[in-house]
Specification:
This protein is mainly β. The longest helix has 12 residues. The chain is globular.
């Protein structure tokens, strides 16, 4: 599969620079699997497409203000540092720009010395291992000095950082928002629960694996950066119980609607592509979703749709793995 297979035209004028005032007023595309028809609704209309017993799985990761601007000690050239993965004891895997200014051994300073750092190593992929030095709580210092790592196609300043968080975000650690969930409101979540829909939460910290550009022409040659995820026993039990009663439906930025599941049967809806691969990693290891606390390194490939499921193909270091989701 070639990278060019994924090319499409997206005019800049169609890329929103500011979020809607009401999250769930965003548009929702609905694909009916029975006849292939497409309708356009608003996100709050999703209540019409769920049934009691359905289970929606959310990613509760919270975005940290991971972009830091500083400079090397004794120099004035600005250096941008993007935090990717917490390695423990103040050590982070990071992206830096310009890279030539952050060789191993370089000392960095941020916020007039409130935060300092040492570049300890340069990884084979160009990422840096940087150890930060500070007094107090690191996340509190980030709140003072860091900014939200908005995608490069968002040119306008984000006035309210909470609009780059989901309303159910809980566990800090992402370097980018799990955007499939940004349209939910607290009121919509309550309406779902009132209708008998089960809400389950897992954690996937969005990192470089999500937004690093694919440089190889053959996408199978792309190295996928790992991302930390966690599924607790309680949440795994809720997901497995719902899946045992019915089908697994894709439910991301769009909605694939399938009414062929009988009354009283449960359907599982996964909020977004990013962490669907993590539940797939769990499922191929054991029969069902289980307690997990590790890093995922899967690349999802589109393949075909078969009968009542969405058939995809995942690529790992050991080769291709089929996944019916």
């Amino acid at each position: 599969m070639k990278k060019s297979d994924f090319y499409f035209d997206l005019p800049e004028r169609l890329i929103a620079q500011h979020p809607l005032e009401q999250r769930d007023a965003s548009r929702l595309m609905v694909l009916d699997r029975k006849d292939g028809s497409v309708t356009h609704r608003h996100f709050h209309d999703m209540l019409e497409y769920v049934k009691p017993g359905d289970c929606i799985v959310f990613n509760n990761s919270r975005v940290i203000p991971a972009r830091l601007m500083g400079h090397a000690v004794g120099h004035v050239t600005p250096i941008e540092v993007l935090l990717l993965t917490d390695k423990g004891d103040g050590l982070w895997e990071c992206l830096t720009r310009p890279g030539r200014k952050t060789r191993a051994g370089v000392e960095l300073t941020f916020g007039d010395g409130l935060l300092t750092a040492t570049v300890e190593a340069v990884q084979p992929d160009g990422n840096r291992l940087i150890r930060f030095h500070y007094e107090g709580i690191f996340l509190e210092i980030l709140d003072k000095l860091g900014t939200m790592p908005l995608p490069p196609y968002i040119k306008e300043k984000l006035d309210d950082p909470e609009r780059y968080q989901t309303v159910y975000s809980k566990t800090p650690g992402s370097a980018a928002a799990p955007t499939a969930g940004l349209h939910f409101t607290k009121e919509l979540l309550e309406a779902l629960k009132d209708k008998g829909v089960k809400l389950a939460f897992v954690t996937l910290h969005v990192g470089l694996g999500t937004f690093r550009p694919v440089k190889e022409d053959d996408v199978a040659d792309h190295h996928m950066h790992s991302e930390y995820y966690e599924v607790t026993p309680e949440q795994a039990e809720a997901i497995n119980a719902a899946r045992a009663r019915g089908d697994l439906l894709q439910f991301a930025e769009h909605l694939i609607h399938d009414d062929r599941v009988g009354e009283g049967l449960g359907r599982v809806a996964l909020r977004g592509l990013l962490f669907r691969r993590d539940l797939q990693l769990c499922e191929r290891t054991l029969d069902g979703v289980f307690l997990a606390d590790e890093a995922a390194q899967l690349v999802p490939f589109p393949r075909c749709r078969q009968s009542r499921s969405l058939h995809c193909q995942f690529f790992t270091d050991s080769g291709f793995t089929d996944a019916v989701i």
